[in-house]
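Objective 1b. Sequence-to-structure analysis of Glycosyltransferase.
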Amino acid sequence: MDISVVIPLLNEEESLQELHDWIAKVMQSNRYLYEIIFIDDGSTDTSWKVIEQLSKKHNEVKGIRFQKNYGKSQALDAGFELAKGLVVITMDADLQDNPDEIPELYNLIVNDNFDLISGWKKKRYDNVITKNIPSKLFNAAARKTSGLKLHDFNCGLKAYKNEVIKTVKVSGEMHRYIPVLAKNEGYNKIGEKVVKHQARKYGETKFGMDRFVNGFLDLITISFLSKFGKRPMHFFGLWGTLMFIFGTTSAFYIGAFKLYKVYHGIKTILVTDNPWFYIALTSMILGTLLFLAGFIGELIIKTKSNEKHYTVKEKLNF
């Protein structure tokens, strides 16, 4: 199979038929062998019924239905697990991503041997204040932190080698950072393509300003995980050891200085009246806790299983 198109969605009943027809037209005109995987992330409208109807008419249409709304990352992860195409393309279901971009994305992966191509919506049809400006700030911070020179980390239109999406584990709210996760796994040939952005035709956006706050928090998380995710002891153990040494040294100095004054008959205060005693004690306790956190983190990494963080209610055509 040439291409798997993975489409997460939430309450997009009006756009699904049109989106399918558009994708099918592009695929058939280029004679691709393909599948379209719709992941219904707990829709409360008739989105699933539309997907059922499409799957009955077209064998290439497949569907996954979640028990409830788990989020875009979990939806993508479910689609990635079942995708069979040589190239996997993701896009949103709201018709703002243009399926006419598929052939060129496919060629960049197959012919130019890119591991991942991320779309760049250079010209956007979103609200400037609520979306465009926060998006630019977010992307600038992501570029600075990750080292990837991408302009639009959050663009839903991306193309991957199949092996990339089988290697990268997407969870939480990390779908924005799949290029960073891929880079961390050793896939360094990551490119970017300017893609057409369509104005929303149906419904309303599912995202508010809170997604940018969450995005920055996730950026901090991914930055930490990139450096210490597989070796937490290198971070927690190091700082724990330094703090414990500082606390122990301070406590030893306080005790030695106290004994010196007592021995020479010099008037002195109680050890417990010395503020440095509490600083030393707190440093030793925090150092111990940080060291234990690193140790527990190492144990979790060694014993963790690949548990899914979503529940699939139904599947179609798999």
